[in-house]
């Protein structure tokens, strides 16, 4: 059990990440490769990743470099998921390279004490070895995570929209009380099912909540409580959705004023009942329209209790921007999905 202790100051410094943290997604996706648990939920990704890595130099680097220092275990070095990754992959990888050697040595020693450090791990104190490691991490990200970027972003954007509404309706207590079945809020302590028993005192530093596409079941935090507090947790809908079909038929079904208007209404997110009111149609008709939009990959839908919140995917936002920018684009029926 992880017990996260809040103060009044921490409530004002609570943040929910709106974009995927690339280094946490690297770590969690590598964990998915190391176990069959939850593989059904990532079957699509696992098959393509296995095919991408099989018999390649990158696959060898993943086995030799990445998995040994990012094991699916109770501990892996904090320096491989630095806070700087909030500003993107480049900043995060640079922070790994710039980690002070003394800290690297301390974390490698801890990895060794739990019996997981590979024989070459002590060389991570050398900048050149860390540069080799981050080259492998970058190549891995480009090969097996970046191709799924839109899907990952859509899932996390939907999560953020869901919790934004939850917070507006129920406040911070409502947010913390509903994050996950494996978290329980008893003010001022958030109780999290965890791989070990410990306490994390925020002491006014706040907490960065990071919804993760590849995190499965149990949340993850930094082992060193002195580092900026982070809690990485699985998406509310733990089973990732399949990729949108590539056929043109779903997009062709979008032609028409009502669905174009629906797409515009969902630019800021809406529940099914809100969309029905906006369009002046019945809830069942609104559900039909959202099904077509979702099958075309333009929106994502997330269920929370008895409501479903619909938000745009990156593709849907791009279609909407393109329509708005087109000459005479104020007409909802002027969308051309063929170009």
Describe, in short, the structure shown.
The chain is of the alpha/beta class and 339 residues long. The protein has 13 helices and eleven strands.
Written description of the protein model:
With 339 residues, the protein is an alpha/beta fold. It folds into three domains: 2-17 and 151-234, no CATH class; 22-149, no CATH class; 249-334, Winged helix-like DNA-binding domain superfamily/Winged helix DNA-binding domain (Arc Repressor Mutant, subunit A), CATH 1.10.10. Helix content is 46%, strand content 14%. It has 13 helices and eleven strands. Strands 3-4-1-5 form a four-stranded mixed sheet. A four-stranded mixed sheet has the order 2-6-8-7. A hairpin with an 8-residue loop joins β7 (220-221) and β8. α2 (22-33) crosses α7 and α11 packs across α12 (283-295). Mean pLDDT is 84; it is low at 238-252 and 325-339.
**Total number of beta strands:** 11
What can be said about the biggest beta sheet?
4 strands, mixed
Average pLDDT level: 84
DSSP helical segment count: 13
Portion in helices? 40-55%
- Share of β-strand residues: 5-15%
Structural class: alpha/beta
Q: Which regions are unreliable across 5 or more consecutive residues at pLDDT < 50?
A: 238-252, 325-339
Number of domains: 3
Question: What is the helix/strand order?
Answer: EHEHHHHHHHEEEEEEHHEHHEEH
Question: What is the CA-based Rg, rounded?
Answer: 22 Å
- Anisotropy-based shape: globular
- The span between the termini is 53 Å
Q: Record the strand order, biggest sheet.
A: 3-4-1-5
